[in-house]
Amino acid sequence: MRNCYARNHGAQYWPLSVVESGHCQINKAVDLRDRFRVPVEVTDRGNGKVEIEIGSVNPAKGISAPSATGAVNIKFMLFATAFGTTRSMVKEAVTEYQLPYENKMHPAKKFVLDSGASAEDVAIVVIALEYKMKDAVLMNEYNRIPHHLPAAAIAMGRLQ
């Protein structure tokens, strides 16, 4: 993503894109792409709003999780700021989607994150996974182990 920023930061048109940005793993202990094999689309809807769409998924086949997992909590985060100006406040929006971890197809789903950011702010979209288990003690243990906490910045661009 650093290369993406270096290549585009001065461009007036720099669309928010999953394809152009690549993934930047936030947790070096695990690659989100190894745990979350679900198509993701990110679309800038203007006025600080970003739509994230995950494709239809069978969680047992498209998401790699510990054996005791009952559900996967998918966290979608949007961060935006005006780089290179005196206006350096970061705007953010977060939503979560809890998906039962089962061998059953779930339809595609869309989420709109409204950061309230301004046009031309640079935005980064992050996805993180958290595993939910029936046994609270086990869940607490798993969610402290770095290789069970995949998170990655998946898209970057200038907002419309």
Give a written overview of the molecule.
The protein is an alpha+beta fold and 160 residues long. The protein has one domain (2-158): Immunoglobulin-like (Sandwich). It is built from 5 helices and 8 strands. The chain has helices at 2-8, 18-21, 32-35, 59-62, 136-142, and strands at residues 24-25, 40-46, 49-54, 69-81, 91-100, 109-114, 122-133, 151-158. The longest helix has 7 residues, at 2-8. The mean pLDDT is 90.
In a few lines, what is going on in this structure?
The protein is an alpha+beta fold and 160 residues long. The protein is built from five helices and eight strands; from the N terminus they run ααβαββαββββαβ.
Query: How big is the Rg?
Result: 16 Å
**Mean pLDDT across every amino acid position:** 90
Q: How many β-strands, per DSSP? A: 8
The name CATH uses for the topology is Immunoglobulin-like
Task: Record the strand order, biggest sheet.
Answer: 1-8-7-4-5
Query: Based on helices, strands and strand pairing, what is the structural class?
Result: alpha+beta
**The CATH architecture:** Sandwich
Question: Beta-strand level of the residues, as a percent range?
Answer: 35-45%
